[in-house]
Amino acid sequence: MRSRMRLCSLLVAVLIALLLGGCADLSKNQEGGYQVTDVEGTVVTFAHKPHRILTVSAGTDELMLGLVEPERMAAINESLADREHTNIPWVCDRIPTVIPRSPSVEQIAALHPDLVVVTPWMPRENIDAIRELNVPVVVCKSAATIEDIHGNIRLFAAAAGEQERGEKLIGMMEEKLTGIRAKIAKVPEEKKHKSIALISIMVNYGGAGCTFDELCRYTDSINAKAAAGNHMGQEMTKEQLVAANPDYLFFPSYEDGATNEENYGRQYLEDPSLAQMTAVRERQIGHPWARYVYNLSQNIVYGI
Fold first, then answer.
1. Is the pTM of this model over 0.70?
2. Could you tell me which of 105, 119, 179, 213 has the fewest CB atoms within 10 Å of its CB?
3. Per-residue burial over 279-288, b = 16 or more CB atoms within 10 Å of its CB, e = otherwise
4. Segment 189-213, tens digit of pLDDT
5. Is 178 within 8 Å of 157 (Cβ atoms)?
6. Residues 193, 124: contact at Cβ < 8 Å?
């Protein structure tokens, strides 16, 4: 099953690259260029389609690569370049330049980008400094829902001058989601609405307002952390977890015993204070792929 999923993911990544934003406001100017309004209301002007694009994070790189050819990317984030854990292992062969997880303004400027896409968590002074270099900077949304991702796709597509590709990519996502809904409709009611607690090394992740909430919603499951009143950005203690008593525990995995994720899960399964929880007692433990569970691009459909 996992090998089939991996092959399916690879095929879709290739299709997306070949086929080649939620609300992106696009307008043409008299000189033949265009303008895009980002999520903060900033109007960004482009004289032509950008050909040295930088999006700073792994998730935004992955999203942009669904819209433009790899040759139009100035660099990729080191997280996406990790061949063992990336959704698109071929990417390093096409984009050899790699930037760190949190690149400095100097590192960004050295690549001479003609479009930089950033998320709101980038320090404001860095965003302003990049713009002072006369580099077009588009701020996208910090996505938590499918609708947010659709919005970012439209924004990215508008900035890249590839609106048609953006709509095509959203259509591919919706086609996959239609297939998922059809499968879920066949599941007996008594097997639905099970509660799942996602146990992440990011201890403040998994509550209401994160993408895992969306995965649960689309599968008629219950996000145990959200149901217990836990929100994104809050840590759920083991005592609260016992009180929530989820049907399943999910430990995001990279299928690599040496990673922090795998080792983090063991401390929960071996903790005597959790032994009587339904999920532990009945060994209802899941290990979904971390690269899909945390995904903020079109590939979130595989997380679902």
1. yes
2. 179
3. bbeeebeebb
4. 999 999 999 999 888 999 999 999 9
5. no
6. no
